[in-house]
Design goal:
single chain; alpha/beta; eight-stranded parallel β-sheet; 16 strands; 26% helix; globular; binds beta-D-glucopyranose
Length: 557
């Protein structure tokens, strides 16, 4: 099978090459949990700058920085108070510039998160809306409606927010505003020209500051049809499979008009700014977001949702390479991010029914697998390393989430009193939420905070973080950290055309070649398998007597 045969010029200058993103290894930094330079328990931008040598040695092509904007942290920073500033606890715009310069100096691109579906309820515009009367221009920038019932005391519809509870919140004068996520995240009205212009100005602000690309949060929710009467949740759920572009708020066709305007702005820059959509949409509609006239790339979360299973992985890979070829974008591969249970843990829990848990509402964290006491940590990590090595051999870009290079598991044992995720609070604790993958990284084995900073970390770290610390793994040639470094180094040298050819194999084995004779073979089965001739470049676990053991990937050259 062959995907888009776009050549990747290996000698292109990474800082000016317009195609740098096509096969980039992108490392997601969740800044409040990465490295704390001032001891306040929150990671910060100076912490990221200090770790640029670490990122460079890891071998990543780009960093995607989750929100670092002023925020009350009602949703981990995805509740933005001001889109053109830095949270004072994380630094200043000057610190941002220093960080960007340090990354660029190391040949690493910078992607920032843009959160256009909603602001925070502390944003100047929302405060103005609350202080302004019904029907005012200030209210028109958000989605205000009168309530239902004789005195308007009931919400305008029965819609539920993604984090649980009503999607409407009442304000003192009796009106209600829409929040698809937490009440602290009022949805913008994207029919309003002022909203469109404001985001264009924000994209220009960061592009002018040298940002190379953008990750677009909930990219499929901006356009909404809120004509009256609002449909009930039951009616929305009954209205088909989400492929007609006519749902009241998820994945409406006209959302792409917004991205056409954004693309025109991105293309004013050299090289053009890139964007990747976080759009939990039906696979058949993902290409609209990834088109070159639109955002240019869209996350494919299919691998992330697949159990560790050869047939499932094969289908996901094949389908996504076909899609990439159709749109002209390269595919994106993801196994972990800040919203889901870490893949080492997912693969160590009893299998869940494939793809059962995910809808357009982006609630991937319900993929919690099975109960914690059934976690097989060693098996989970072994499979995670095998899946990662397979992923890094695929044509397209690979997104890595901080801490996966240390083989970290999800931290399940967080006391309720320390939890921060609104998904936990708005579900009466039934869903544990996403804090377990957001615990600050361990850099050294020493406490307090395992080298994250000098103060108490904002989420408690478990004792087992000590042995996983960077400094220990650095010195251990067999560590997961050195395994990632070697994989990224080899991958960087071997990227050629975006092509993959399957080699016939047993049902429990995935074997493919890439241009230049590079091969990746993964054994998902329970018995060791023989290998074809070739030089062993890298393995996710040692070979046994020349055979590829179960739950292992090998690269041959
Ligand atoms: C982000 C989440 C966030 C939500 C609301 C998601 O897509 O990845 O972390 O809670 O959007 O902004």
């Amino acid at each position: 099978m062959t995907s888009n045969p776009q050549p990747f010029p290996s000698n292109a200058d990474p800082l000016t090459d317009p195609d740098w993103w096509r096969q980039a290894a992108v490392y997601q930094v969740y800044p409040r949990s990465f490295s704390d330079s001032n001891g306040d328990g929150l990671g910060d931008l100076q912490g990221v700058t200090a770790k640029v040598p670490y990122l460079s040695a890891l071998g990543v092509d780009a960093v995607w920085l989750s929100p670092f904007y002023p925020s009350a942290l009602a949703d981990g920073g995805y509740d933005v108070d001001d889109y053109r500033d830095v949270d004072p606890r994380l630094g200043t715009l000057a610190h941002f510039d220093d960080m960007a310069a340090a990354l660029h100096g190391a040949g690493i691109k910078l992607i920032v998160d843009i959160v256009p579906n909603h602001s925070s309820n502390r944003h100047a515009w929302f405060r103005e809306a609350l202080d302004s009367p019904r029907g005012s221009a200030a209210r028109e920038r958000y989605i205000f409606r009168d309530g239902t019932g004789p005195d308007g005391a009931q919400p305008p519809s029965d819609w539920q927010s993604v984090f649980g509870g009503s999607a409407w919140e009442q304000v003192p004068d009796g009106q209600w505003y829409l929040h698809l996520f937490a009440p602290e995240q009022p949805d913008f009205n994207w029919d309003n020209r002022a909203v469109k212009d404001e985001f264009l100005a924000t994209l220009r602000f960061w592009s002018d500051r040298g940002v190379d690309g953008f990750r677009i949060d909930v990219a499929h929710a901006l356009a909404k049809d809120l004509s009256e009467p609002l449909p009930s949740s039951a009616l929305l759920a009954a209205e088909g499979d989400g492929t007609d572009g006519a749902h009241a708020f998820w994945d409406r066709n006209e959302v792409h008009d917004i991205y056409t305007e954004w693309r025109a702005l991105f293309n004013e820059y050299t090289p053009p700014r890139t964007a990747v959509a976080e759009a939990w949409v039906h696979a058949s509609r993902r290409g609209r977001y990834a088109s070159p006239e639109g955002l240019g790339q869209a996350f494919n979360f299919d691998l992330l949702q697949a159990d560790f299973d050869a047939a499932r992985f094969r289908t996901v890979i094949t389908d996504n390479l076909v899609q990439a070829a159709e749109t002209g974008a390269s595919s994106t591969w993801v196994l972990s991010n800040h919203d889901v249970v870490r893949h080492a843990t997912r693969y160590g829990l009893p299998a869940t029914p494939a793809d059962s848990a995910k809808g357009q509402d982006g609630k991937a964290w319900v993929l919690a697998g099975g109960p914690e006491e059934q976690l097989d940590r060693a098996a989970g990590l072994r499979r995670a390393r095998a899946a990662t090595l397979l992923m890094l051999a695929l044509p397209g870009s690979a997104y890595l989430y901080q801490g996966e290079e240390l083989g970290l598991h999800e931290v399940a044992a967080i006391p309720d009193a320390d939890r921060q995720d609104p998904a936990f609070f708005r579900n009466a604790g039934v869903e544990k939420g996403r804090d377990g993958c957001r615990v600050p990284l361990p850099w050294t084995p020493e406490e307090p905070s395992f080298g994250f900073g000098t103060g108490a970390p904002h989420l408690p770290q478990p004792e087992w973080f000590g042995p996983a610390a960077v400094s220990l793994q650095d010195a251990d040639t067999d560590s997961t950290l050195n395994f990632y470094r070697r994989a990224l180094e080899l991958r960087g040298k071997r990227q050629g055309a975006e092509e993959l050819a399957w080699v016939p194999s047993a049902a429990s084995v995935l074997h493919f070649t890439r241009p230049g004779g590079w091969q990746s073979i993964t054994n998902f089965g329970t018995a060791a398998v023989a290998l074809p001739a070739g030089t062993v470049l890298h393995t996710s676990a040692p070979l046994e007597g020349g055979l590829l053991p179960p739950d292992t990937t090998v690269w041959l050259g």
